[in-house]
């Protein structure tokens, strides 16, 4: 009897499932097609995104090479050098204008700021470095741009801002960036220039303690001897 009841239940389940498939077969087919299309679209989208990223990387690599060649020119006032600079800037602006925090766009903005600095357009360079420092704060260009912003601020005669940017490098990134020892040394240098000798010595000692293998630590130790 029990076997008959189990058989009947199994039969009902088969019938019920078959009825379900019959009723919703079209709907299930549509859902399956939608899922497949979604996966295909995702695969295509990822492929296009990767392709675009690769193309941008190739572009910035080429522009980096052009920038290096331009900086190596002894005379940047010749017609050839001027034409090379104009072409370089146009290419960098085209890539930088896409915005975002991806490496190619950030590097393009960084190189534009470097060109402005080389051409002694310090206000434009400062704006560019600060933009990269903000948009690329989670990349190696973040602390590098902050340090450069400090250097430019000194060129503009704004030592207070320079001190702020140098300090931000250490406060934001600590030992995670190779720029930190340089930033701390410059903090101490500016504090000493402002006659804050005790604070300058404290920062120099901090630099020597936290980054003992750095060249800036050696400079800090030498400066500490002078300030005793």
Strand % is under 5%
CATH T-level fold name of the domain at 59-177: Serine Threonine Protein Phosphatase 5, Tetratricopeptide repeat
Can you say what the CATH homologous superfamily of the domain at 59-177 is? Answer: Tetratricopeptide repeat domain
Encode the helix/strand succession as letters: HHHHHHHHH
Specify the biggest β-sheet: none
Per CATH, which architecture of the domain at 59-177? Alpha Horseshoe
What structural class do the secondary elements suggest?
Answer: mainly alpha
The first-to-last residue Cα distance is 104 Å
Describe this structure in words.
- The chain is an all-alpha fold.
- It is 83% helix and 0% strand.
- It has a domain of 119 residues: Alpha Horseshoe (Serine Threonine Protein Phosphatase 5, Tetratricopeptide repeat).
- The chain has nine helices and no strands.
- The longest helix is centred in the first third of the chain and has 70 residues.
- 27% of the residues are buried.
- The mean pLDDT is 87.
